[in-house]
Design goal:
Elements: H1 2-15, E1 34-38, E2 44-49, H2 56-63, H3 67-73, E3 87-91, E4 110-116, H4 123-130, H5 135-141, E5 153-160, H6 177-191, E6 196-204, E7 217-219, E8 227-232, E9 237-245, E10 256-260, H7 262-267, E11 274-282
Parallel strand pairs: 1-4, 6-10, 7-9
Antiparallel strand pairs: 1-2, 2-3, 4-5, 6-11, 7-10, 8-9, 8-11
Helix pairs in contact: 4-5
Length: about 280
């Protein structure tokens, strides 16, 4: 039985190796398979492969998420640099997942959605915490009798071939998304032909109740007035922000690589005053 389960899992993995692609007129096709994972920030994400004539606008409308949110999860991409065959990460709203079938369910309008099991997952955690469904439903749908294994694909629901209705999608645009996007274009334009330098280390910010939306950073090496890229690996969020001065190491921890404004830290999903970041800048 164990050998059969392993072989079945392997066959499923090989069959579903290709990400969903759609075609020039449809974002998803009945022959596509959507595989979902959950990142460290507990976001449900899928991978979409760009097909002919697909634009970021059409993709964002289909999945019910803003362009800014997609670009935040794909920091190396822009609206003008996507090419056929490129893979982009899409955050999938919970309400985009149809978990159960009823009498009105039309299988021709939906395709299956699968979750890829990762190390440490349990049937209970996947069913109850991640997808809010009865354990028995998940087990029966996937013929789970002897546990689960990392890499295994579990059928957790369906996604509509016609897209995520606007009311159900995560269409909220972050109020600072426009600023971040403009800074990103500045970074990409001015970094051309220059050596990109990378850092990893602590970011520091002063927690405050202020509702200021000012985005800025202090950095020891990037030219003042230049834009730097800061990524929070835990939330998978990336920020492009202008450097306005140097770090005062007399009032911040000596290990600090960048100081961020509260608005910038909040955009990155920072929970603590000091958190790990990955930085790119040019000189």
């Amino acid at each position: 039985m164990r050998t059969t389960l392993i072989l079945l899992t392997l066959c499923l993995s090989l069959s579903f190796a290709k990400a969903n692609t759609g075609d020039s007129t449809h974002i998803l096709l009945p022959t596509d398979t959507v595989i979902l994972t959950i990142n460290e920030a507990q976001q449900k994400i899928i991978t979409h492969t760009i097909a002919q004539q697909q634009t970021l606008y059409k993709i964002s409308r289909f999945y019910g998420v803003s362009i800014a949110k997609i670009l935040a999860l794909n920091p190396t991409k822009t609206e003008t640099t996507l090419s056929i065959g490129d893979e982009i990460t899409i955050p999938l709203p919970n309400k985009a997942i149809r978990r159960f079938r009823n009498k009105k369910f039309n299988p021709k309008k939906y395709i299956p959605l699968y979750y890829r099991v990762k190390s440490g997952d349990t049937v209970y955690g996947i069913a109850k915490r991640a997808f809010r469904m009865p354990i028995d439903t998940l087990a029966a749908r996937n013929d789970i009798k002897n546990g689960i294994s990392p890499g295994q694909l579990l059928h957790v629901g369906w996604i509509s071939l016609t897209g995520v209705p606007k009311a159900k999608g995560n269409t909220t645009r972050h109020p600072l998304a426009g600023k971040v996007y403009r800074e990103k274009q500045q970074f990409l334009a001015k970094a051309k032909g220059k050596r990109i330098r990378k850092q990893r280390g602590a970011a520091y910010w002063k927690k405050t109740k202020s509702k200021s939306t000012k985005l800025y950073a202090l950095h020891d090496y990037a030219p003042i007035g230049s834009t730097i890229e800061v990524t929070n690996p835990m939330s998978k969020m990336t920020l492009y922000v202008k450097v306005i001065g140097r770090i005062n190491h007399r009032v911040t921890p000596s290990s600090t690589k960048v100081v961020l404004s509260p608005a910038a830290a909040n955009y990155l999903g920072a929970l603590n005053a000091k958190f790990y970041t990955e930085i790119q800048y040019y000189k």
